[in-house]
Amino acid sequence: MLGKWHVGAHTRAFFPGARGFDYWLGYMEGEVHPFDYTTGWLAPEVNRSGRNLYENGLQVAESCTNNHYLPHMLTEKFEQIVHNNGAEHSKPFFVYFASPLPKANSEANGTYRVNRQFVMPQYLSRPSVRAMDNEHFGRKQQMGQIQALDEQVKRIKEALECKGVLNKTIIIFMSDNGAAPMVLPTIHVNHGSNWPLRMFRGSPFEGGVRNLAFIWSKLLKKKGIVTDQLFHVADWLPTLYEAAGGNVSDLPNLTGISQWTSLKEGTKKGDRTELVALINPVRNVFGFVYQEPGSGTLYKIVGGPGSSHITGWYKTEGTNATLKMVNPTSVSVNCGHPEGIERTVCQPWLADCLFDLTNDPCELNNIAAAKPEMVNLMKNKVVSYNATAYPSVRQPYDPTSNPELFQNWWTPWQDPEPVRKASSCLPFQSSFSL
Description:
By secondary structure, the chain is of the alpha+beta class.
């Protein structure tokens, strides 16, 4: 596992090494400074920052890294892992590469958190970036980070090719959520764009939960297939397990569905007909997608009294009515109606909203009043899913996690052994075999 973890760190039982990974290098929180590997945190009247880079549970000391650009460091480690993976090219491996790009990292500056997008100069000098004007420089930095991400993908592919294993490898590229544009009234914002989809990261609307992804492999029988079948992140486990030759029935209590046959054959039809986009009992917000039998129409319900009162669409920075961002591709979204203009009002904090995603992917037309039976059907399904959900274990900021108590490191502070240091830099510099 390389890169961002962000699914638990208060004890070592939540670290990647305790969750099935043989090796890991990365950071525990949602973001990190790409040069000094610090994470800033701001709780009420509390301003904290600490170093946050670990290798196999050991703190990676400053002297071992010399402020090396983190995306490059992670890519180099991937290249090392592939290079050292056996001489016979026959040992299977799985790498979860959670790139920190593109991302604005939040820094505690003494009063509040500020969001900065760091990028190496060579990416800002690339023609596609240099061609952008400086009026929206943050957007230009965003493009520079995307260039750096492209470089990571290129080097990943080349490492597999040089090792001679590319033709029997499955490569998946995906995002974890929608962009967080500058209009977002919270932290973690950057200069990304979800236009013409509605809303942004953290929202149950399409701008928050619908993401592009691609899968590449010589094992796929059809190439260039574009599908909009329902696919949940939980589906990757059984899908890849089956692709590797496993029997999915050996995996108990799964919520995911294997979609390997659909992807391999290019049928564009998967087995998933329902998808929980969000059920948040803390905020009292939900989003749920349902495929109607027979017609195949995708319906989506969004609601909950805790829903944000911000529910609009936000144009990409630097664009307007006359200067549009037009670069159509085979996966471009066609709203079916004028973009960003609501046809029927949706106020989910007052009443549940229903959308026909098949014909209205930009969620412009709330059809809840016209289809009360569908609203009731989907609302009951949400209640059923919520009844079997694990309760949230999210906790407020714990002052005992203060990095100042651990020599300015974020640590698994509730663990019996919160601090583990490497005796030298050798673990980081040495080769590694899976």
